[in-house]
Amino acid sequence: QVQLVESGGGLVQSGHSLILSCAASGRTFDDYTMGWFRQAPGKDQDFVSAINWGGGGTYYADSVKGRFTISRDNAKSTVYLQMNSLKPEDTAVYYCAADKHANARAMGFLTKNTLDAWGQGTLVTVSS
Asked: CA angle, corner 42, sides to 24 and 104, nearest 5?
């Protein structure tokens, strides 16, 4: 099973940008669809974005479409989430996820309990 470690979270002002990274180890990275989820305080985990095995297809939640960009570097076994025009409502713990069978669109319907791998999370706080 692949292991995931997120980094890049922090405190940022509204309107600014942040990039998250997720480093994978343990299995062949490019066999997996990779994705990002988030959980705001007191709320359920929400899907954010996902990218297919070879990077040819991506999928975004409506709430981040046009502001966030997901990408992957298979040579580095790393997936990135570039977050622009951040809003206070983007404040959450962001989790990296991996799945060997779902494509990017299908990952949006999966949860922590049904995904192949889940990271420990990184906190993003957006101040107004």
From this structure: 35
- Of 73, 93, 69, 71, which Cα lies nearest the Cα of 83? 69
pLDDT of residue 110: 93
Q: How many residues appear in the chain?
A: 128
pLDDT > 90: percent of the chain: 88
Give the C-alpha separation, 40 to 53, whole Å. 27
| Pairing of the two strands 58-60 and 78-83 | unpaired
Q: Find, among 19, 18, 11, 120, the residue nearest to 79 by Cα.
A: 19
CA distances from 24 to 64, 77, 84, 98 (A): 24, 5, 24, 9
List, for residues 80-127, the tens digit of each pLDDT value. Answer: 999 999 999 999 999 999 999 999 999 999 998 999 999 999 999 999
